[in-house]
Amino acid sequence: MKHTLLVLVVLLFANVGLAEQRLHLIGDRDNKPECFIDGDGNVTGSDVEILRELGKRLDLKIEIELAPWVRVLSMVRSGKADGGFPLFITPERKEYALYTKAPIHVSVMTLYTKSGREFEYSDFSDLYKKRIGIIRGYSISAEFDLAAKVGDIEIAEVETIDQLVKMLMGERIDAIAATPSSITTYLKEKRVEISAIGHVRSRAAYLTLSKRAKIKDKEQLLEKINQALFEMEQDGTIEKITVKYLEQHARED
Asked: Is residue 213 domain-shared with residue 247, that is, in the same domain?
């Protein structure tokens, strides 16, 4: 009897501790439909809803803030945010971020050119000596990033999709590398037409915890998050949320 009571007390305090814990997460504000700020100023998107459901399942108070991508990476690196999303896995980011085992979404990076200025694209060698625009701080793929680092591909980094499209239309860059979901709504609103010429690569994007953030029992919390994400994947929750936002996004287009 005493043993049973002891176990119940331990479990009770463990649950209370998690319920009192807050997690400040920062995400990309220019990544529709995964994470964005709607017309009413609300933080929303499929990734945002997935993380809110995660918080409910763990009885964890999750606070979500959206910011420009460079600030997302900076706050995760410094520990000013407890974690960030949605991050691709790169060697540099693994130095300061702990990744969940399961992604929260998979991004398809696509190349776009100004209509009438398309060029043949089948592999990375077709991008050599061309100027490609990306959102500042984005990692497109390991091969792409390496080609940019050694100078085979020239990179132009800016803060927003709006800047990228204006540079493309002004012929200051040869192409844009971006996700279709992040760019199609902008194109419709601005009534701009550009051409998709091929996919760069599909990449999984993850929730991360900052190694420098002061999170109580960080490794144990990450395991709980992994288990909850696995259950959400198995019971179809992640797919249901993702499809809902993709369909909503398609209707807006």
From this structure: yes
